[in-house]
What we know:
Layout: H1 2-34, H2 39-60, H3 73-97, H4 111-142, H5 144-157, H6 162-182, H7 184-204
Amino acid sequence: MSSMRSSLTRIAPACLPTISYLALLNLGGRAALAVGADPGVAQCAGQIASLAGIALLWRSGICSTGRIGRPSAGTALAAAGVGVLMQAASSLFILTVGGFGDSPVSEYVFGAAGAVSSVLLAPLVEEITFRGFTQAGFKDLAGRRWGIVSQAVLFATCHTEPVQMVYSFVCGLVLGELAEREGIWASVEAHAVCNALGVLSAVLG
């Protein structure tokens, strides 16, 4: 019993960021919908609520945090290239197997507010949550490799459609490796580029 309690005590800080992210995302979104906000604004509200929770975790020092990294022109270009490749691979996967919508981010496209949520807020909040807190927490527990894999699994399970879960897991691995090599800011950029291309595809398509 004591060993189980000890294991849970060690795992809890690694899982806490994901749990708080999901709880606040849903709470903020549902609260906005309850007062008559459109879906895009509700998405923004959920992401902002999650960002506030992340800020509290960051200040509390309860959870481990990933490396921020230093921006440079070369790394920025590489991160943008990773984002382009992720979007291309995700779109090709969907076209091949069918399933979720017309685009990897079509569920997020609800007008201008939805686009802001997808391209700006979601990459920032999700990268800090998964490639920052969660990856660092599991890395402390089981090492670099399992830190990347564990956060990718949790990231995928936050996307409930089966086809989307598959490419979200792969993208989570790619972003996790990028965050380890170049820092969280680089994974934020790659995520933002990927989502921006998805939104553009959904709008033009």
